[in-house]
Amino acid sequence: MIEKILVAVAGRGLCEQMLKELMKIPSIQGAHVTVLHVVPNQVSSDAMSEKLQEGGKILAEAIKFLNLDPNKVTARLAQGDPKTTVCEVADEINADLIIMGSRGLGRLQAILENSVSQYVFQLTSRPMLLVKDDIYVKRLNRIMVAISSAPASQYALKLALFLLRDNKEGQLILTHINPADPEAKPEADPILAAAAAEAKKQGVSYRCITGKGKPGEEICRIADELNADLLLLGSPDRRPSIAKSLVDLDRLLGSSLSDYVRVHANCPVLLARSVE
Predict the structure, then answer these.
(1) What is the pLDDT of residues 126-175, one digit of tens each?
(2) Which CATH number fits domain 4-132: 3.90.550.10, 2.60.120.620, 3.30.40.10, 3.40.50.620?
């Protein structure tokens, strides 16, 4: 499911650390990685030349740190608007996953401070793994999925099972917020039961957790309580086909579940879109 990964690096090192941990997962190890650094347009040719030189160094350091098979990695230095360039490169290589750093900006801050990662998520239909500046990247053993009946959520479950395949130390944390019967045991919840059955069929260790209250707050609380290493969340694109190239203002302004979780979760967040 994940054969081509695009990681956008900016010299801070977090995305490189995230990718290095991701590449320890058996099901990911055969993936081809494109490491991209985008240099914004500058006011003069001298400034552009200087920034391109700096970008080349950032790429070289990232490649050295990752220490990947040279046949499985491509370095890309691009010039232009980072928001659109990341999307263009992702489409060009048909990336199965985009990895980007995030400052964890919420609501209007994302607009006012020109958040690249937030805009890329608006404009791409691809799964996106966000790594906030203030989190600690750990070995990816405890992978949590917020489960619902929505197609995007079911796709997030498939991604999580793919990541945990052949990982003997891994555990899948299945979480359903506000089930139909809040008093029932987690195993009796039909949505969790179906997800658990799929995990069992694939030989993946799992546990089921229910929560009640505001979904975003509950998901983040459970992820903290269970010390999740990675959180997967389905994030459906609600725009009609004619508006796919436009920003989803509800999510950008902070009124969506995915926006709340990406800002407040204390672990890396993989936001997944269902495949149409």
Answers:
(1) 999 999 888 888 899 999 999 998 999 999 999 999 999 888 889 999 99
(2) 3.40.50.620
